[in-house]
Design a protein that fits this description.
Two copies of one chain form a homodimer. Chain A is α+β, with helices and mostly antiparallel strands. Chain A has nine helices and eight strands. The first copy, chain A, has a domain at 3-113: Jelly Rolls, CATH 2.60.120.10. The first copy, chain A, has helices at 3-10, 15-23, 79-84, 105-114, 116-142, 145-155, 157-162, 165-172, 176-186, and strands at 25-30, 35-37, 45-51, 54-59, 64-70, 75-76, 90-94, 98-104. Chain A has a four-stranded antiparallel β-sheet with strand order 1-8-3-6. In chain A, strands 2-7-4-5 form a four-stranded antiparallel β-sheet. The longest helix of chain A has 27 residues, at 116-142. The first copy, chain A, is globular, with a radius of gyration of 17 Å. Chains A and B meet through helix 3 and helix 5 of A and helix 3 and helix 5 of B. The structure holds a DNA duplex. Chains A, B: It comes from Zobellia barbeyronii. Chains A, B: This is Crp/Fnr family transcriptional regulator. Chains A, B: It holds the Pfam family cNMP_binding. Chains A, B: InterPro entries: cNMP-bd_dom (IPR000595), cNMP-bd_dom_sf (IPR018490), RmlC-like_jellyroll (IPR014710).
DNA sequence: AGGAAAATTTTACAAATGATAAAAAATACG
DNA sequence: CGTATTTTTTATCATTTGTAAAATTTTCCT
């Protein structure tokens, strides 16, 4: 997906503001398996996915939990670094070879102070991510694991093709064994 | 909590911008039990809590889930109405008599377009809510119900005194019976 | 204070999910 | 193509959490 479309999908920007942002954006590619963002670091860039798929996962003592998948058009960001300038809780791993647009957070922060259209674009970006996160938080509680799987299968069929089931299970909040049981039932 | 402090806690604003916002803010009180925001409505106001405590809950066919408590200094908002101008998924009920500051969304939206400091204040507001929501989504998965209860007890001891346990249980993602079991163990 | 209503706890049983281990299947790669 | 590795499935048993109903405690109202 091209950068113009990605920026506009978040919030329509006047051409002049869009050009200003694009001056600070560069393209970069990394291979499958590359760790793009690290939990123990204050990250200084955000990325938009041109092509490919990534996952965000957090670690605790004994297990690892995948809580986000990003694909074409999505933003890859350590929210904690971006918002609070503190290290985050997640690593982000590329699950395929990825073509990315990179933007230095610092440059964007400066634009927020100077360009009201960009400030409102940044506001809309946060608001939309918030809605998505809130919906996941709420609706997780209303559905059984089986329903959550079926919903993912319906809304995001390609995800299940592109991502291994262990990660999907973790994203759904269950073990891989449970997911296997569910898949056997649903089929 | 006074409105100046609430606004500043979100993001420090120049006095001039703060005065502009305050022109559109009025005070209002409602009794315990009042439903402040409704799931089936596009809400046109947001509120800041001067005094009191509220809960947000969503309904599905068979059960009701509390997913947010707000107290002094917190913002009460139908995020879906505010962000997307669509009806939300939650009712908000006052659990005590509440003194509130009310701000019409429409007025705020207009200020976003005119005042860059206010636009960035709105951005920071969304970003901070996002961080809080994301943390809840992630850390819920890492802790057992018992750990989540103990954490709430530690970080928010007054909540457990002010709110009935059925709501707390729902917030923790467990049944009231489970919470009772946990409380019997922990004591 | 007294009694009704609401909230909380307890108990018994059922269902869902987890842990572990091992087999089967799919994939990667020399 | 064949072997090693990874991923997925299957089976068993243990644990957690849920459901329902009764018992107890607290709150609220007159």
């Amino acid at each position: 997906m091209e950068i113009d479309q990605i920026l506009n999908n978040i919030y329509p920007l006047p051409e002049s503001s869009k050009s200003v942002i694009k001056k600070y954006i560069s393209e970069i590619s990394y291979p499958k398996g590359h760790i793009l963002l690290r939990a123990d670091k204050i990250e200084t860039s955000i990325y938009f996915i041109k092509k490919g798929i990534v996952r965000a996962y957090a670690n605790s003592a004994d297990n690892e939990i995948t809580f986000f998948f990003g694909k074409e058009g999505d933003t890859v960001i350590s929210m904690k670094s971006y918002v609070a300038n503190e290290k985050g809780y997640e690593d982000i791993e590329l699950l395929e070879h990825c073509d990315l647009y990179e933007l230095k957070t610092q440059n964007l922060q400066q634009l927020f102070e100077k360009d009201i259209a960009i400030a409102n674009w940044g506001r809309k970006f946060a608001e939309q991510e918030l809605i998505k996160t809130e919906e996941r938080l709420i609706f997780r509680e209303f559905r059984t694991a089986k329903e959550r799987y079926i919903e993912l299968l319906t809304n995001n069929p390609d995800l299940i093709k592109r991502v291994q089931l262990g990660h999907i299970a973790s994203y759904l909040g269950i073990t891989q064994v449970s997911l296997s049981r569910i898949r056997a039932e649903v089929k």
